[in-house]
Amino acid sequence: MNLDREIRTFGGVAVLVAMFGATYPAQAVPSYARQTGQECVACHVSFPELTPYGRYFKLTGYTIGKTFVSSEGFNYVPLAVMAQASVTHTQNNNATNPDTGETVSVNQRNNSAVFSAASVFFATKLSDNIGAFVQWTYNNLATTADGTLGGHSGLDNTDIRAAGKYSSAGAGEPDLIYGMTLNNNPTVQDPWNSTPAFGFPYTASPLAQTPAAATQIDGTLAQQVAGVGGYLWWQKMIYGELSFYRTANGAFSVLRAGQDIHTDGGVAAVQNWNNPYWRFALSHDWGAHSAMIGTYGMVVNRYPSNFDTSTATDRYRDIAVDAQYQYITDPQTFTAQATYINEKQSYNASYQSVVDTGGGIGAGPTPANPTDTLKTFKVKGTYYYERKYGGTVGFFSTTGSADAGLYGVNSDGTSRTPNSRGYIFELDYLPIQNIRLMLQYTGYNKFDGASTNYDGNGRNARDNNTLFFNIWAAF
Amino acid sequence: MKYVNSAIFALLVGTTTLLSGQTIPPDIQKAAEEKAVNLCSTCHGPRGISTSPEFPILAAQRMGYLAAQIDAFRKQTRAEKDAHDFMWGIAGRLDENIISGIAAYYAAQPPAPGRTDDPTLVAKGKELYDKGVLDRGIPACASCHGVNGEGIADFPRLAGQHAKYVAKQLTFIQTLTRAAPVMHGIVKDLTPNEIQAVAAYAQSK
Fold first, then answer.
1. Distance (Å, rounded) from C-alpha A118 to C-alpha A10?
2. How high is the ipTM of this complex?
3. Shortest CA distance from A172: residue in chain B
């Protein structure tokens, strides 16, 4: 453990935080708050979950308020900083290395206070129609090549938008919001928190074991692809978006800055722009209530190896439905989100390779089936009192085809599944709007295909149960 | 379009305004209305009729009152938490002309219809609103806010306003969270139940 480096880094962030705090003592909040002059609660139920006004702010291109430089001069610092420090307790920290038979630690910093990560945001209005959300993150607990933990930084979620409004004569509010987005993570552009990029859990232990399988749209392509798309929001009721993604290389390579492009399997490589993403949602606000029901999805034509784009591609078709409900009052708020993602995996390239050669293409998948399915369901409900004291209960489940090539075999010779299931309890306390203290417990009933002995070496799903205490500050 | 500053009103609501009688140029009025349509409507609803009780209805509000309140947000002299969190930033970027234009726009909008949730509470509120409580020195609300809650001169319209918002403001004034010295003297002895009743009545009109 490189404590000196951690302390130095944390010290650096503390200085940065202090600097911003000292510069803007009356508005010690992130850059959008400096831009609008409004407090976090205007846009967030609790960060990052958006209120109806926050959704309007996002879909109008982050353009409410003033630019950081104008004819009046320099108006505010368009940067914000965020840092997290935490302690993670893994229920059973001892696992067996399948190669050596040695007992190893699952969590290399079990029960230790660690500085987890820090981000710098360039988040600001650039003109009356253009705004940016750009996040650069330093991860202090990244896994290095030799398996130890070390510092690593790279571009995180990024969404740059251009937007406009149309109001017919005599309209009381805009009839149509329209815009374009350039981003590096499918769903990061979405304003509802039922979709993956800004979905619950909003942060989780960086040290805990997590299930291996995830659909493509559920973070698998994050910070590896570049997407361009357009959207329409009619009378704040009907929302539609169509975007197309490509590998974030060439002119778009900045969108995956910091990713491991030198290792086969380090990043995703997909066909050029031939990866459509769509979104359709119906939303309605009445009284203190706001509801949305929608669908989103994506077709990903992905090269099995990012080192070889001359091969055929595997096709992943993700179709998802989602819903959100919010009841926002002073002093109580209740919000709920749910999503179900159904992915059909057609291993047109990889399966053929396995049939022909006995192995996959490069570091790509080695499926035993020509097609598989992977389904994920997530739901959570959150209550906050005075936007200060909060509690969340969540449930998640992933199920899918048994496939010995992807997930291995059980001791009885049957093919394993990607099935995982569990729950999350979270308590939050925000002494001020910019700081969140959270205690999060994640429990597993099933992990990577089984409740017991999921790794073949006696490790059970519940051994990965995690208690996570986190301090999350943003300035 | 002209409006007149009211010293009595300023005293009552605890704010002063530098917005003096003036004519709003058409281009300023247009810019103000664009602001109302594209920004204010997000919380206050189309044409000033909000659905969330957390945000006040502005439709048909008295122009002078509304202009004075926006000015108070701008000058940060109205400082309850919601004002601080939501309105200071918005109002801080408005100049006097735009404020006047926004106030004129909302003053000209059709009012929100009355809504009754609890007839018994509304009846109790009407009694208080119409007659006050003389033996406790509480005057009738109607004397300043109009017999139907429509407001008089720069005294604000209460009719159709969200009951929760009215009750919240009365409580803020009562606890001096919102500075309004004369109004404080009038409402300081209202019980929580009376506040709920008079707020329910205001919403019902």
1. 9
2. 0.89
3. B46
> Mutating which of B42, B88, B106, B117 best tests the A interface, going by the most A Cβ atoms within 10 A?
B42
Contacts of B53 in chain A (CB under 8 A): 287-288, 329
Into how many domains does chain A fold? Answer: 1
The string of pLDDT tens digits covering residues B28-44 is 999 999 999 999 999 99
Give me the residues of A, 281-310, that contact B with CB < 8 A: 285-288
Residue B41: which of A64, A173, A288 has the nearest Cβ? A173
| All residues at 6 or more sequence positions from A283 whose CB lies less than 8 Å from its CB, including other chains | A192, A236, A237, A239, A290, A291, A292, A294
What is the pLDDT, as a whole number, of residue B22? 63
Q: Which of B43, B84, B92 sits opposite A53 (nearest CB)?
A: B43
Residue A383 lies in domain: 3-474
Superfamily name with CATH number, domain B7-107: Cytochrome c-like domain (1.10.760.10)
Is the bond preceding residue B113 a cis peptide, omega within 30 degrees? no
- CB contacts of A286 in chain B (<8 Å) are 51
Task: Spell out the domain ranges in chain B.
Answer: 7-107, 119-204
Query: Residue A10 belongs to a domain with what CATH number?
Result: 2.40.160
Burial class (CB in 10 A: 0-12, 13-18, 19+), A372: buried
> Would strands A94-96 and A79-90 be described as parallel, antiparallel, or unpaired?
unpaired
pLDDT of residue B14 exceeding 80, the answer is no
Specify the CATH class of B119-204 in words. Answer: mainly alpha
Q: Report the distance separating Cα A137 and Cα A151, nearest Å.
A: 10
Tokens of A129: 């129609």
Task: Collect all residues of chain B within an 8 Å Cβ-Cβ radius of residue A288.
Answer: 52-54
